[in-house]
Amino acid sequence: MTRLRIVGGIAAALLFLSACSSTPPAETAEPSPTVEESPSPTEHDSDGEASGALDPVETFLAWLDASRIPEPDLACGYMSDELIDKMIDEFQTNYGTDPGGCEGLTRLTAELYETFNQSAEVSIDVASENETHAVLFVTYLESGDCSMVAMENTGSGWIMTDQTTSCDQP
Predict the structure, then answer these.
(1) Could you give the maximum distance between any two Cα atoms of the chain, in Å?
(2) Tens digits of per-residue pLDDT, 126-156?
(3) Which of 30, 44, 110, 132 is most buried, by CB atoms within 10 Å?
(4) Which stretches of sequence are listed as region Disordered (predicted)?
(5) What is the DSSP string of 66-124?
(6) Rounded to whole angstroms, how far apart are CA atoms 141 and 103?
């Protein structure tokens, strides 16, 4: 009974977190973006010097790629502490178990997406953007799941600060 509840909870989490993390399929129609080796949301030139921050769309794609590999430290580095806490709290409330922090949640959902061979292809529309904030409308092409992703410029790069699972565009 407990195992069935956990498996059911994990399957439900997969649906809930479809806009949060997953693992890439073996082949994709488009190449995945390159992911940084550290949790810093900035690009580096050949000398290792910061060459400028990723824009909001590039940051989201880098997070998506890191969350599907998975590279939990890198993926979690692209999210605010508040967003991480919100996701963990929702998981614990809905499934009655601790996923093991952001790193555990990232690994868990990556394994589920790999198991179900769910595509990482997304369509991203910039709903709004200025120097400090951006809102992206993200659609996962295979499932049709949608989300609004709020982002903030920290000065050293963009991070996700909120995410909703809604297909209603502003």
Answers:
(1) 56
(2) 999 999 999 999 999 998 999 999 999 999 9
(3) 110
(4) 23-52
(5) HHHTT-HHHHHHTB-HHHHHHHHHHHHHHHSS---HHHHHHHHHHHHHHHTT----EEE
(6) 25
